[in-house]
C-alpha cells in the first residue's frame, strides 16, 4: 500500500527520500488531469489557489505556477519583472498572470526552491540519465522474463528420461566413439569408378563398406523407436511408415553429431570415420555435403545426449508422413516431445542467441536430407544399386522385425 503523508513536512521528507526517477514516473507532466495519490482530492496550489497537480520544487502547486517558476529561473527573467502596485498584488488563479513580480515573490515566499530548477545542460544530462535508467530497467525486466522461461514439469522429466535412455541404449559406442572408431583407408572412396545416374559415379569398395553397417544402423534406429511407449501404442502399419520416413534422417543426425573438426570426418554407426569425399563417392553423392554441413553447424551447439534423443523423437513422430492412419495421435505425441524439448533447452541455458529456433531449423535440414536421399536412390534402384532406404529388402526387414518382436 502506498504511503500517504499527513502533513506538508512529512510529504517533503517522503519525496526527498524517493528516487528522482521514481518521482518523475509518479507525476508525468504529459498526463493532463493526473493527480498523484499523495495529494488530497481538492488540494490547492499554495501560490495561486488553483487545483494542485503535484509537488513541484518543494511546494504543492498547479501546472501553471510550476511552469512559470521554471521559466523564470531558467531564463533569468525575474530582474525584468516590475509591479505597478508597489508589490502588494493578491495572487490567485484570476490575477496570477497580471503581475509577474508578485507571482514570483509569492513562489519564493511559499518555499519554491530555485536550486532545483536545472539549466539546459543539467536538464539534458538529467534527461540522458533518465533514459539510461529506463533502458537499464528494461534490460533487467527482459532478463527476468528470460529467467522465468518454464523448465520441464515432473511429467516432462519422465518423458525426457525415457527418450534419453532409449537413445543411449541404441547409440553405437556411446561417448567412446572417438576411441573406438576406425578410419576408412585413404585409398578407398577417393576415386569414383562406376557410372551412376545423372552423371554421378560410385566407388564400389566404399559402397561395399557402407552397406556392411547399414543393417546394424537401421536396427539401432528401430530399437530406439521400440523403446518409446507412445510409439509402441501406434498401429503396426503406422510404426513402419514412421520408421521408413525417419530412418535416414535419424542416421544422418547420429552421424552429424559425431563430426570431428580435427580430422574433418563423420563417424558412421560409431564404427567407420569417413571424409566428405569418401561418403560422397560411396553412394550418397550430394547428400553427403548436406550431412557434413549439418555436422559442422551442430558442432557449435554442444548438444548433449538428451537433446540428440529429443531431436530423434521429434523426427520419428512426424505426422505428415504419407499413408499414416493415426495422424492426430502422432501429432499430439510430437507436440509433447517439442514442449518437453523447449523446456529442457530453457533448463540447459545455452549461451547461443535464439538457440531454440536455430535448433528447430536443424529438424528442417534433416527432413530435407531425407527427402533428397529418397529422390536420389529412387534413381539408384533403377540402376540396380538397391540402397536400404527404398529397397524391398528394407521394407521386408521392417516387416520381419515387427513380426518376430
Automatic annotation (TrEMBL):
InterPro entries: NHR-like_dom_sf, Nucl_hrmn_rcpt_lig-bd, Nuclear_hormone_rcpt_NR1, Nuclear_hrmn_rcpt, ThyrH_rcpt, Znf_hrmn_rcpt, Znf_NHR/GATA. One of its GO terms (molecular function) is enzyme binding. One of its GO terms (biological process) is cell differentiation. Residues 42-119 form the Nuclear receptor domain. Keywords: DNA-binding, Metal-binding, Nucleus, Receptor, Transcription, Transcription regulation, Zinc, Zinc-finger. It is found in: Nucleus. SUPFAM superfamilies: Glucocorticoid receptor-like (DNA-binding domain) (SSF57716), Nuclear receptor ligand-binding domain (SSF48508). The keyword Metal-binding applies. Gene3D superfamilies: Erythroid Transcription Factor GATA-1, subunit A, Retinoid X Receptor. One of its GO terms (cellular component) is nucleus. Residues 155-399 form the NR LBD domain. Belongs to the nuclear hormone receptor family. NR1 subfamily. This is Thyroid hormone receptor beta. It comes from Anolis carolinensis (Green anole).
